[in-house]
Write the structure tokens for this entry.
Amino acid sequence: MDTFNTDICSKPAAKFKALGHPVRFWIAQQLMKSEHCVHEFVELTQLDFSTISNHLSALKAADILSTEKRGKEIYYRLICPCTRTFIACVNGKLEKDKG
Amino acid sequence: MDTFNTDICSKPAAKFKALGHPVRFWIAQQLMKSEHCVHEFVELTQLDFSTISNHLSALKAADILSTEKRGKEIYYRLICPCTRTFIACVNGKLEKDKG
DNA sequence: TTGATGTTTGGCAATATAACAAAATGAATT
DNA sequence: AATTCATTTTGTTATATTGCCAAACATCAA
């Protein structure tokens, strides 16, 4: 076992923390299928633009999302495929638990 | 895209939230290699027994850990291998970013 | 009963947090 | 240059959480 070291564990933990909010988890889940831009998320949540923007910033700060500007819009997408895998697995487990 | 639904997203998000704390992330990481019991974590963190116990409870409540009692001790282990995979991937990414 | 191993509860102080509104940015279009 | 559109940043408020410790409680084995 390793001795616990805050500095070492804070960064990876922050990634999980970023996904640990219903709205942010939902966003990541939507991005499993394809990229999307801010106003699409706003429409489907009924939340304020700024609220969604802040959630997206949080995910980006945790290096979970990347952005690309095309035309007037900014497209968000998942950086790491393992996020997809883990989300899928978590969802799978939850499905099983139901039945 | 799916409409956002709090009920649906809260449970999976809670799993991420559970891992979104440095100490809990570290615990999960240690359990990637082998099972351990409470006092081992206490020794290596210098935290109170109750503090560690609460962190373990949080992870268990999120269905990330399972327990087994053997003799005097209670052994904790990771339930889902995909957690291992995701942690390894997150760590790998962070390693890359450094270099 | 005693000792070892964990859990639960209570309390506190600090911190975080989510959300909205309004102002600001910046690119693209006119 | 001015305007418009998409998004971000800032300010604020209220709320909730949370992490931690300490002390009490539970369980089991010797």
About this structure: The mean pLDDT of chain B is 90.
